[in-house]
Amino acid sequence: MSHLRGFSHSRHVPSPVDAMSDDELQVLIMNIDRNKDLIGEMPEIDIMGSPQVFRLRPYALAAKYVWTDCRNEVYAMQLVHQHTTIPVPQVRRVLPDRAQKIGFWLIMDYIDGDCLLAVWPKLGWWRRLQIVCALRSYIQQLQRVPLPSQSIPGPFDGTGSPLPCLGGHFRESSGPFPTYSAMAAWHDEQNHRYQVLNYHGTYFWPYSKFDTSAPLVLCHFDLHMRNIMLDRNNQVWLIDWAFAGAYPPWFEYVPFGFWANAASPDRRSPRSFVRFIGFIVGGCASWYFNHYITEFDHRPMGFRHCIIDQDHFVKQGIDPKLYQPVDVARPSLPRMMAQRCLDIFYDTVLVVKGLVVG
């Protein structure tokens, strides 16, 4: 894994690292000053520890430490790099960690800038509007990227094998899911598990089936203001693709929504940004988050690990109509049509704006 394979870098930009050996890069890694070279630290927010990303001086390189196999992250970034105009750091090399003998170092281009969370309060309304329009465009581009498989959800690494889903409401890794319907069944099973464990003989906790009507698309699945960078030329970058994978398009709203509702006020996204999230992701993503994911995620995690008897209600002779879901978690048709019209209007305005500005 020391060198990258499988892609013809049509947008490859030469770098000094191209001529460096793995040993030379390992020396740079060993010389990292963990206090001086740490990138992206925000002590008031990093209550679980600082991000393990460091500057590799004297070059414009960054080294990100990952504990597990990072082929899915590298593959996703290369896929985005090849099929979109979205600015993402170019991965130059992947090296094993020689010090701890576990994990890997991703050697990438260093982005000279700040995360959006840090600079947002300093921006004027027009610059903010430009950024959210760029983000909307980026997500639309992601959704047009050809997937390695149109039917296998979750992260992918080019091998064709399904990988465990990470991030968002999965919390702990879940899967891997060989099919879209298998991932939907996992959601339904978690709801049913909660229903069984909370049944007291009089009330069945109702739930709706997971909606599989939308096709799988490429989602970053960890988009929030700390993973959006604004460089010194005011260009918007997307970083940290570790959770990227094939999901329904409304999944892109999930991390945005979680950060908007973070328990700690210091960690919440500013309300002036939150009001744009629905516009950025588009579609009825906010409805799915508020009416399905929020309820799904608020269930105690302990219930997901309890062993239940799958035919618990059957053994009690209870009519399946009483406890099985009767609908699918999906917005009403009028709401979907109204949102579609709104999206068309937004995109028309953005096209006109681009022609005028251009």
Automatic annotation (TrEMBL):
Pfam families per record: APH
GO molecular-function terms, A-Z:
kinase activity
Which residue ranges traverse the bilayer?
Answer: 273-289
**InterPro entries named among the record's database cross-references:** AGP_Transferase, Aminoglycoside_PTrfase, Kinase-like_dom_sf
Superkingdom is Eukaryota
Question: Does the keyword Membrane feature in the UniProt annotation?
Answer: yes
Query: Where's the Aminoglycoside phosphotransferase domain?
Result: 68-263
For this UniProt record, the keywords arranged alphabetically read as follows:
Kinase, Membrane, Transferase, Transmembrane, Transmembrane helix
- Name-wise, this protein is Kinase-like domain-containing protein
